[in-house]
Amino acid sequence: MGKYDATMISVLAGGVGAARFLSGLVRIVDPRSVTAIVNTADDTVLHGLNISPDIDTVTYTLANAIDPERGWGLRDETWRAMQSLARFESIRPIGSTAAPTWFNLGDADLATHFYRTSRLQEGASLTQVTDEIRRAFDLQVKIIPMSDDTVSTEVTVANCDSVVSGQTISFQEYFVRYRHSVPVQSVHFRGAETAVFSALSELQTSDVIVIAPSNPIVSIGPLRALAGVDAALSARRESVVAISPIIAGAALKGPADRMLVELGHEASVVGVARLYCDICATLVIDTADQDRMSEIEATGMRCIVTNTVMSDTAIADNLARVTIESVTTRKEPK
Ligand code: FO1
Hints:
CATH topology of the largest domain: Rossmann fold
Radius of gyration: 20 Å
CATH architecture of the largest domain: 3-Layer(aba) Sandwich
Number of strands: 14
CATH class of the largest domain: Alpha Beta
Helix content: 25-40%
Strand content: 15-25%
Distance between the termini: 30 Å
Bound molecules: ligand FO1
Strand order of the largest sheet: 5-2-1-9-10-13-14
């Protein structure tokens, strides 16, 4: 426990996989030495409410308030508001987006969106509001949105029956409404070209930078699309370690494997290594993929093999320990 206290750690995070990793990390290091830099390109406005799913998944998971089955929203949730909204669907005028029911917001979860929306309307930044919410959940980990500016992932759908080919939809429509079942032709992060990254100083000063086991395209991709991020990571490449979200060619949850293939990459630890090798010196992979070590090393990355399926806290804690030690105990290159 005490061994890593002085080590400042930044974690580039998306949703569920990153949140699970962070839960293990804060059990083996002082939570005050950890900063989660979270993707906000999944954010959406529904019912006039500002919703930041990856920030809430990280916050709720670290507070042990997350619904463990869903991996999003709060445990022991009720759905009275959503059920009441359904009443208006039959009379809603065509073209109206009022009272959407495809995105499920639990009654207790609504409180977070009420608070965030009101504070933003008062002029608070997303960074300020995110810090207030994590303090309301008694967390010591710092949680920083990747930007206070709006960045929105837009998915252009390839030809398929349920959606007109070439149509561009929001990330949440892709992920939730279409259950990420439609093929992706391209992904664009609207606003990334002008948005200011909030955590450059963290990347420059952290002892260890972890790329969490999140979707490389739509969770880590938006962070990297912001000005200065890839350059800052490349400059610290020896201190950057990633955990592959792909195990034996598949994602544990979500569309990462299909998206990689649809966008021309390989859905494997080697595909992930090729995406990360310029900004990251070490890739942590699951034992299921150890026969691909040499291909990963051929990209110029070091490869660490361990159990990365965080099915219990002991595995999550060990993964965090192996990940941090892959940087802190690294012999300085000759
Ligand atoms: N994911 C779903 O698959 N269905 C939902 O109805 C849903 C609602 C929801 C509400 C609040 C929130 O913070 C997350 C929610 N998610 C839902 C997850 C969300 O789509 C995330 O963006 C994904 O988990 C990807 O990170």
